[in-house]
Amino acid sequence: MRQVQLRDLGILDYQSALNIQIEHFEKIKNIKLKNRDSGLQEPTPNFFFFVTHSPTYTMGKNGNFENILFSENELKERNISFFQTNRGGDITFHGMGQIVGYPILDLDNFHADIHLYMRHLEEVIIKTIAEYGLKGERSQGETGVWLDVGKITARKICAMGVHTSRWITMHGFALNINTDLKYFDGIIPCGILNKGVTSLEKELGKKIDEDELKQIILKKFEEVFECEFTSNL
What we know:
Blueprint: E1 2-11, H1 14-38, E2 47-52, E3 56-59, H2 72-77, E4 81-84, E5 91-94, E6 98-104, H3 114-130, E7 137-139, E8 142-147, E9 155-165, E10 168-176, E11 196-197, H4 200-204, H5 210-225, E12 227-230
Parallel strand pairs: 1-2, 1-12, 3-4, 9-11
Antiparallel strand pairs: 2-6, 3-5, 6-10, 7-8, 8-9, 9-10
Helix pairs in contact: 3-5
């Protein structure tokens, strides 16, 4: 059974969480490079981080600055940070009431297929929100998990964007739980016009227990990725 080391970072600013991601990404990469150069087969570890960020907009490497609707002064007035990142996708929001998951995995330990990896991530969230009676779906050409795909009411509940190098993953998913959706008014989320954003709280009409939901995510992740979590970090 594949092992994944788990750590919940709690509430943490985006840069600090990014530094932790990079540290563990480099740890895996260095082992893989040493194995290549020495002919050894030292096992590479896999990591998973939960985190909730203070209010932040992040832009993917293919993002368009026209999708930021707030001015620089407005961002400062609202205490919203902004970061350009090396993940895929356009612009999204991170903040309180949102669960972010950062799997730092060596896909050589799973399946060295980035398309399959993204579909697996989506499947974890689809299975998770099904526990709350919601039918999550994929939208062709639009990464993430959606509700009411193909309808005028289509809305995204979970954004995703990743970076991979040497089959090692970074970044991940952001699932809106009890999120203040007004923050999305300052951007064109994921650069997609005429589609909404939602949260579990909005869909169900009540606050969601975030710790309980995290446990469901972990269970579904273990099922989909055929792994088990340890708390060695």
